[in-house]
Each structure stands twice: as C-alpha cells, then as structure tokens.
Design a protein that fits this description.
mainly alpha, 15 helices, globular, 330 residues, single chain
C-alpha cells in the first residue's frame, strides 16, 4: 500500500512553501460594491493571498502544519515556523476578519473554504506550540458562526464534485467541531443525516469534466465520519449495494487527465486522489469484507494514476499535494 514517507513529505512541503506566498497568478472570489473595492489579493487577504486562490492557500497552510507535526525534523521545518510567525499575526487575522465583514462577503468561500479554515484550526490545535492556533482562532470563530447561521437554512445538500459540495465541507469541518464545539458538531450531524440517510442504490453518474471530488464517494465518506460504525455499514450496503462486484464501475476506474495545463481538467487528478482518500477510509470502516478489499484495490489504482503528477504545472501544483496527503494518510 502506497503510504506517506518522509521523502514525500519533504517534496510536498517544498511545493507548498513555494506557492502559499506567491501572490500571482490569482483568481479572486471578490464582489465589488464600488470602485473602492478594487484591491489585489494581498490587500484583501493579508494571510491567505497566495496559491492562486484563497482556499488553496488555506489548505496549503494546513498541509505545512500537518507535515511539520508528522515529521518535526523536516528540512523545511524552520521555514514553515518562520512563515507561520510572520503571517499568522493578530493584525493579519484582523485583516482577514475585516474582509469577511464586508456586505458582499456573506457567501465568500461557502462552503469549501469554510471547511478548510476549520480543518486548519483543528490541525493547529494539535500542535504543542499553541501560538498559531490561538492567534488564528478568532477567524475560525467567524466561520463557526457562519456554519451555524447557514446550515438551518440549507434544506438541500449540494451534490457536486467541486467547491460547492456540502458533503466535503462538513466532512472537513467535523475534525474541528467534534472536539471543539459540540453544538456545531450536533448541528452538522443532524443536517448530514437529514440530507443523505435515505439515499440508496447510487448511480454514480460521474466524473464530470472538472470534478475534483466524487459526489458519490464524498457523500459516503461524510456519512462515515458522522455515523456510528454499525450504522454506517448498514447505510453503505444500501447506498453501494454492489461495491463488492466493483459496481458502479465508474467509481473504481481512475479518471483520465487529458491536459494538465488546463486548470479545470487538472481537477481530475484531484478527483483520483480524493477518491483514493474516500475508498481507503470507507474500506477501513467496512472491515474484513469483500467490498473493503475491492475498495482498497481501487484506492491504489487511483493513487498510482495521479500521485506522479502532483508537481509539474502550477494549475495542479498549487493544490494537489493536499489531496495526495489526504489519500496517503487515510
């Protein structure tokens, strides 16, 4: 089974350090109310201005924090610590919060970036040195409040393979909410069950051309995170009744990536890696069953298809290592 090694961690850390402080090229999710709102990435986002877009910068920091915790003796550890000390400051956090307070920013990065910011907070909370965690916490509190305000309004899930996926965001946010905010975790759990518990016989009409998530497998991984083990296995048998046969076949075959210089088509490498993450997690939950064995084999095929392409073109390089890490750690 392909696993994370220190050599891979060094490579991923080098990639992230090269892009989290790279301001351009940049695609901003930015609503303009008037000419006074014409600003560049660094002015709008004093911490997360790099990595082509805000959410990729957030999970670039998550990647660095996680690798540093896993391998404290990384060659890049001193550079990571220096970056965090320079960028995660009270003044910069206040700047990020001020941006969110703008009237046009109510839906900023909802829900994908919300989930990643809370995942970053959860990771920093695990570190022995709590300075970055405590400094960033007021920003995490803003996104907690946004989840609590939004979820009661969300009568329906968003079943996509891109940033709007509710299953992905709530799966990520669970790692923060369960230990830190029981009210939020309970709200998310109730919402996930309301959205997905009746689903059965998934058809898996995927992938779409620019998916980086599997709508089907991401839903299953989200349910795995919120349900008790027996309840999840029962639900999964209904949701994917023919998994032991490798059906639906599209879930078990890696996507082909025809042009890695195209940012949207490069998403498909992320799809392969995120599917591997889901398949490994689901297989572990299914225990010693034929379906688990088939799932593990599928994960290996998906990793083999896209792990060699984490670096090479900036359209993938600014984010794919994060999804590779999720897969390799699962």
């Amino acid at each position: 089974m392909t696993q994370l090694t220190k050599a891979i961690a060094e490579k991923f850390a080098a990639l992230a350090l090269a892009h989290v402080s790279r301001e351009y090229p940049n695609i901003m999710q930015h609503a303009l109310a008037g000419p006074e709102d014409i600003v560049g990435p660094r002015a709008a986002h004093p911490i997360f201005f790099g990595s082509y877009d805000w959410h990729s910068c957030v999970h670039g920091y998550w990647l660095l924090a996680r690798l540093m915790r896993r391998y404290p003796d990384l060659a890049h550890t001193s550079a990571i610590k220096a970056l965090f000390a320079e960028q995660i400051t009270a003044a910069n956090v206040a700047g990020e919060i001020a941006y969110l307070a703008r009237p046009g920013a109510r839906g900023f990065e909802r829900p994908y970036g919300w989930g990643w910011l809370l995942a970053l907070q959860a990771e920093l909370d695990e570190h022995a040195d709590k300075r970055a965690a405590e400094t960033l916490r007021p920003l995490a509190d803003v996104f907690v409040a946004r989840f609590k305000a939004f979820l009661p309004l969300a009568d329906y899930p968003i079943r996509t393979g891109v940033h709007s996926s509710t299953a992905f965001a709530l799966r990520l946010a669970a790692d923060y909410a369960e230990p830190a905010d029981g009210e939020l975790f309970d709200l998310m759990r109730r919402k996930v069950i309301a959205w997905y518990s009746a689903d059965a016989d998934a058809q898996a009409w995927e992938p779409s051309q620019d998916d980086f998530l599997s709508p089907t497998l991401m839903e299953a991984e989200c349910m795995r995170r919120y349900l008790a083990p027996d309840a999840f296995r029962s639900w999964c048998r209904r949701f994917l009744p023919d998994a032991r046969k490798g059906e639906p076949a599209t879930l078990f075959a890696p996507a082909r990536v025809s042009d890695r210089s195209d940012g949207k088509i490069a998403h498909l490498d992320g799809l392969n890696l995120s599917r591997a993450w889901c398949w490994r997690s689901i297989a572990r939950a299914l225990g010693d069953t034929p379906a688990a064995s088939v799932a593990r084999d599928a994960a290996e095929r998906h990793i083999a298809a896209s792990l060699p392409h984490v670096a090479g073109d900036y359209m993938g390089e600014h984010w794919l290592a994060t999804f590779a890490l999720l897969a390799l750690e699962a």
